[in-house]
Write a structure and sequence with these properties.
Blueprint: H1 12-15, E1 65-66, H2 114-117, H3 121-130, H4 133-138, H5 144-151, H6 153-167, H7 178-194, H8 196-199, H9 204-219, H10 231-243, H11 251-260, H12 263-266, H13 272-275, H14 277-285, H15 291-297, H16 300-311, H17 321-333, H18 341-353, H19 362-375, H20 380-383, H21 388-396, E2 399-404, E3 407-411, H22 416-437, E4 451-456, H23 459-470, E5 479-481, E6 493-498, E7 508-509, H24 511-523, H25 529-532, H26 538-553, H27 558-564, H28 571-574, H29 582-599, H30 601-612, H31 616-627, H32 632-646, E8 673-680, E9 685-692, E10 698-704, E11 707-715, E12 727-729, E13 736-741, E14 746-766
Parallel strand pairs: 1-5, 3-4, 4-6
Antiparallel strand pairs: 2-3, 5-6, 6-7, 8-14, 9-14, 10-13, 10-14, 11-12, 11-14
Helix pairs in contact: 3-6, 3-7, 6-7, 6-9, 7-10, 10-14, 11-16, 16-17, 16-18, 17-19, 18-19, 19-23, 21-23, 22-24, 24-26, 26-29, 27-29, 27-32, 29-30, 30-31
Length: 767
């Protein structure tokens, strides 16, 4: 989970030829979970990945596995940034934006880091200008000596002055490579934010230089061109305002863009891409010294925001409605400044009056209502937004469906076929999960025996509406809200959304990742989310959710495999991972978890044993002292093999090999044995029984391998059938598990029903 963000401009697939960097649905190129933890700040729906935050250090990260509804962060620390226009793979925390807004063509020549870190002066400038956009994008990943070589203050100042010189003759397109200069500067601020010790401090020398560059660009006549050539460079330059924390100085530029915007000419020309970053500059401005005072002295930017939202109301419900949402949100956010409330209140009320908690204008209504709830809740009746979460939930989450006794779906727009597909995926994951972690049932004091799955219709709906309804941060790929699993009546839920970029195919983004959080919290992590964060466990929590999601779906984690080839981290360092850098959290978390599960299973079992009883310090000792650096060399070698193809196939857990059951009756199971080569034709059953000794605490039946699809059923009182059972596991293949706690003594019965004719299946019995 994380704070609200810069709303993204939707439907890039349809608009790509006109607007190269308009909204590309979250996660199109990202790993299964691209939850980008960000600063928790009050009031909203989505957190931009725009350049650095004005804070002197990265804001506290907020994970996408959260404590519970309304508990993502204190109200005075949580607020959505304007929704972002950039592809999800470029989003990383609230630090400076990672990568260009534009997709960029593939590099035509190799991109050697030494060409940037080893050059100075005009030699560096000329090389930057000649580089491909994708090459400059790769610099956002620099660390260590490379980061210092490329981005130390002297280098950044040189490039900032080069921007000044180039801007003097800026032609309104990238024929003079202004975009490369701007993007390089953004990369520098981003890397220095995360790796200040590597890069070194930035001071007044760079501030003077960057001001000269931005002053020259925004003074250029062609920076005002309403044209596709100017749009991406203007957008990058507005974002650079925030990277450099010059939000106060360039308020006049922000007002100019808001005032000049014309949907009739700017949207088709790609200029919506350029105006959207102004909302990030405004959001971040509240964290810059002197910003609020500047607005108090000249509140005309508030009138500009109100006029922008009002005259563009007809955009709501369409591809560019996010602009109106962002304007509404950033106007209402100024309610936090008591000196401005008299000015903001009637403007905000006017936006509420022109919208409703459902239908086409719901985003605008939600934007204002959410900010009112944080900054002016006592006066909600003035605005007409009291009980906003309940009204929004009733207005948009109208689909209710029971998947199983433990899984309930609440959705915005799923049809019956889509509901069935989602349910099948969820119910089938249980057996796979248990086969990986080899748990012994729920951890002590965990009563989370049901899960509520909330599915929004798109990433945009999730960013706006989940934030307003559930009071969470939504600059991520989904959110699990665990609550207190020991509390009576606690209802865990996770929030996710349909992947609109995959349409007409149907996919719920992060469905299996978030469901893994639920299962992991119930069977592996004692206590609530905050308890599990007592020591660094992010590497496991997020890495394991990635591992299960990819391996269960039999999908290669291409982004993680590519990261393996970079050898960025030692395994011992990954055990210290916290929320922040999403590449480290998700891709490297996946690699660390996969390595430990597949190469050092006994060590991982020992760590999980500690996690399951809440012995966080004990688990930490195992990881940092007992294991320590012992596996660093092996991990490094494994990364080489992984990048070379050894990690293809998604990763699959190894089911423990047990001896064949000895009884002459092939239907008879016994303690810790297996029946292999089990088969049945479609619509028929393979039946099994076993005798449970008195006092047995648990019986676990697992099926695996073979072809076809067999579903597993349990009945304590007679042969098990699809209509005569007390428990079942019905996944999409033969990977099924049923764990029966405190079974009755005597005969109990299991069967494998051939949903599709199967053969070669192995059935194991453990107790």
């Amino acid at each position: 989970m994380s704070p609200s963000r810069l709303l993204r401009l939707p439907q890039l697939a349809r608009l790509l030829t006109l607007v190269l960097s308009l909204f590309l649905a979250a996660g199109l190129f990202a790993p299964q979970s691209q939850a980008a933890p960000a600063a928790a700040t009050p009031g909203g729906a989505s957190t931009p990945n725009t350049p650095a935050g004005p804070a002197p250090q990265p804001a506290t990260g907020s994970p996408e596995r959260g404590a519970g509804e309304g508990k993502s962060a204190p109200a005075d620390q949580r607020a959505p940034l304007p929704l972002d226009t950039r592809p999800a793979e470029v989003k990383a925390s609230t630090a400076p934006t990672v990568k260009s807004f534009r997709l960029g063509a593939a590099a035509e020549q190799p991109c050697a880091i030494g060409d940037f870190s080893g050059r100075t002066g005009s030699d560096l400038v000329q090389h930057i200008k000649a580089a491909d956009i994708q090459c400059i994008n790769s610099l956002f990943q620099l660390t260590g000596g490379d980061a210092r070589g490329a981005f130390r203050e002297e280098q950044m100042s040189t490039v900032a002055y080069a921007l000044r010189d180039a801007a003097a003759s800026y032609p309104g397109d990238n024929s003079t490579s202004v975009e490369q200069l701007v993007l390089f500067l953004r990369a520098g601020y981003f890397v220095q934010w995360y790796h200040k010790d590597d890069v070194g401090a930035y001071g007044t020398a760079l501030q003077t230089a960057i001001r000269s560059g931005l002053d020259a660009f925004f003074a250029s006549a062609h920076s005002r061109d309403v044209a596709a050539g100017n749009a991406p460079i203007l957008g990058e330059s507005v974002t650079l305002i925030d990277s450099a924390q010059e939000n106060v100085r360039y308020l006049p530029v922000i007002k100019r863009l808001l005032t000049d915007y014309n949907s009739g000419t700017w949207n088709p020309g790609g200029m919506a891409w350029a105006v959207n970053p102004v909302f990030t500059v405004l959001f971040r401005g509240h964290q810059v010294p002197g910003f609020d005072a500047a607005v108090e002295a000249d509140p005309s930017v508030l009138d500009a925001l109100s006029a922008f939202a009002t005259r563009n109301n007809d955009l709501l419900g369409g591809d560019f409605g996010v602009l109106v949402y962002n304007a509404s949100k950033e106007l209402a956010r100024f309610l936090k400044d008591t000196a401005l409330q008299a000015k903001v209140r009637p403007l905000a009320k006017g936006l509420v009056d022109a919208s409703a908690p459902n239908g086409r204008t719901v985003f605008q209504w939600a934007a204002v209502a959410d900010s009112v709830s944080y900054y002016d809740a006592a006066n909600c009746s003035y605005y007409g937004t009291c009980n906003a979460p309940d009204r929004l939930k009733a207005g948009v989450l109208t689909v209710n469906y029971t998947c199983s006794p433990s899984i309930k779906l609440i959705a915005q727009a799923l049809d019956s076929t889509q509901l069935g597909t989602a349910c099948t995926s969820l119910t089938g994951q249980d057996a796979f999960f248990h086969s990986v972690v080899k748990d012994n049932g729920p951890v002590k004091d965990d009563t989370n025996n049901t899960i509520e799955v909330v599915v929004f219709h798109s990433s945009l709906d999730y960013q706006v509406l989940a934030a307003a309804i559930y009071k969470i941060d939504t600059n991520n790929g989904g959110m699990y809200l665990e609550g207190n699993p020991a509390a009576a009546g606690n209802q865990p839920r996770f929030l996710c959304y349909e992947a609109e970029w995959a349409r007409p195919s149907f996919e719920i983004w992060n469905l299996n990742h978030e469901y893994t959080h639920y299962l992991d919290g119930r069977f592996d992590m004692y206590g609530d989310f905050n308890a599990g964060m007592t020591t660094p466990t992010v590497w496991w929590v997020e890495g394991f959710a990635e591992y299960v999601s990819y391996s269960y779906r039999k999908v290669d984690n291409d982004a993680a495999i590519a990261a393996a080839g970079r050898h960025t981290y030692k395994l011992s360092d990954l055990f210290d991972t916290g929320y922040g850098d999403q590449d480290r959290v998700y891709r490297w978390g996946y690699l660390a978890v996969r390595y430990m599960l597949e190469q050092h299973r006994s060590d991982m079992d020992a760590v999980l044993a500690k996690y399951r009883v809440g012995d966080w310090a004990g688990a930490r000792t195992l990881l940092k002292t007992t294991i320590g650096t012992r596996y660093d060399a092996g991990f490094d070698s494994w990364l080489t093999a992984c990048a070379g193809g050894a990690c293809a196939g998604g990763g699959t857990p190894t089911i423990p090999q047990l001896p064949e059951c000895a009884g002459a009756d092939t239907r008879q199971l016994d303690a810790n044995c297996a029946r292999s080569n089990v088969a049945a034709t479609t619509g028929n059953y393979a039946h099994f029984y076993l005798t449970v000794p008195a006092g047995t605490k648990q019986v676990k039946i697992t099926t695996s391998g073979g072809t076809g699809n067999g579903d597993l059923y349990y009945n304590p009182g007679g042969w098990a059938y699809t209509d005569a059972n007390t428990a079942r596991s019905t996944g999409p293949d033969n990977s099924e598990t049923l764990t029966v706690t405190n079974p009755p003594a005597g005969y109990v019965f299991f069967s494998l029903y051939a949903q599709q004719g199967f053969s070669g299946v192995t059935v194991t019995s453990e107790f």
